Amino acid sequence: MTLIKSISGIRGTIGGATGDNLTPIDAVKFAAAYGAWLKNDRNKETYRVVVGRDARISGAMIQELVMNTLIGMGIHVIDLGLSTTPTVEIAVPMEHADGGIILTASHNPKQWNALKLLNSKGEFLNGVEGEKILAYAENEDFLFAEVDDLGKITVNDAYIDLHIDEVLELDLVDVDAIKAAKFKVVVDGVNSTGGIAIPRLLDRLGVIPVELYCEPNGHFPHNPEPLKEHLGDICKLVVKEKADFGIVVDPDVDRLAFIDETGEMFGEEYTLVACADYVLSETKGNTVSNLSSSRALRDITRKHGGTYQASAVGEVNVVQLMKDTNAVIGGEGNGGIIYPASHYGRDSLVGTALFLTHLAKGNMTVSELKASYPQYYMSKQKIQLTPDLDVDALLAAMAKKYAHEDISTIDGVKIDFEHHWVHLRKSNTEPIIRIYTEAGSQEEATRVADAMIQDIKEVAGL
């Protein structure tokens, strides 16, 4: 069982011993730490926090603990109930709230849950803010409200529909074109809140949804990470239903993957590529993704006359670089679309609407769209090291060895060769180096990764 504390929140498995898992006591402690930080940071008379959750079995329990802790601190709560991560993100500024908490462990299995923490803009906290909250939790530096000053809970279950309204009003979402295309789409909502939000969005767009695992009961029918090896059922159903394509989201609906009309994966990396291709064709500008994302986004951006830049891994890092470079779209290669015209957060509803518009205007199939892009393939491996090995020194040695290549050291070591790249990142929890590679074929990506592993062993003297 596990409890992981980080600047982005607290994540852990349900049950077990306090301090080692996400128990009710841990949930209360970290909700109180967030409340303490909020009150000290904002320093005002009244405070409001938006709270929503995905459909995990533990979600209702954790949400009640979190909300009642906040009202015990004199903070008013807007309860969205079953929601999505991007829905909570847009609700925070719409409610003029001081922050937000999303109860979701994203793509982790059902025994996990987490508190993800937002600022008053509805964006994830930065490192400085996260460290302050961890310090409040460590010191248990909390001050609770007296009886006449307790907060109140206001229930508002309209925000998924309000979120959809916002998506449909985006300038680059062509509702008429989508309706005219008469798409039929299979949706795998992994029995979480995507099963509520995505079919509802499609219905508003005149798309016929075929629902698969869209009952928000928290019993995930397969591993909830939207990877090829977990998605056999929807791949078969797309073909059986003669659908135009399939949509897969993770439990909190911030990762988006597509299945083409033949039942083949479009590729999570290409979700952002396709949406960016459409946005850049209509709006000139720059793009951002993280260092472990596909080179295809760089190629598409340059084709449209824009500039591409890569950030350190992590949504907060992507968002900051997008702001710094005035990027018109960005995100992560795991299917996370960040479109600033909507908000600075990964949003599968926005991504779905942009993708549908792209398809409708291009009058092509999903497989034809994929074939139009530069074709890259990834390998993701890891190397186990001895606990006494200095991983930072090892990565520095690898950077020095390849100093004649295009090197980035903002997040591990990224080596850009002419026809492929390698990204080496250390684990924060165990003596492991993760090796990500991308090349023009799967065989080449694997070969490059294997060669880099041997290189690391030689440098480390293993």
From TrEMBL:
Keyword vocabulary terms for this entry: Isomerase, Magnesium, Metal-binding, Phosphoprotein
Which EC number(s) does the record attach to this protein? 5.4.2.10
Instruction: List the InterPro entries.
Output: A-D-PHexomutase_a/b/a-I, A-D-PHexomutase_a/b/a-I/II/III, A-D-PHexomutase_a/b/a-II, A-D-PHexomutase_a/b/a-III, A-D-PHexomutase_C, A-D-PHexomutase_C_sf, A-D-PHexomutase_CS, Alpha-D-phosphohexomutase_SF
One Pfam annotation reads PGM_PMM_IV
Q: Matching PROSITE patterns, A to Z?
A: PGM_PMM
Q: Which SUPFAM superfamilies match?
A: Phosphoglucomutase, C-terminal domain, Phosphoglucomutase, first 3 domains
Query: What's the protein name?
Result: Phosphoglucosamine mutase
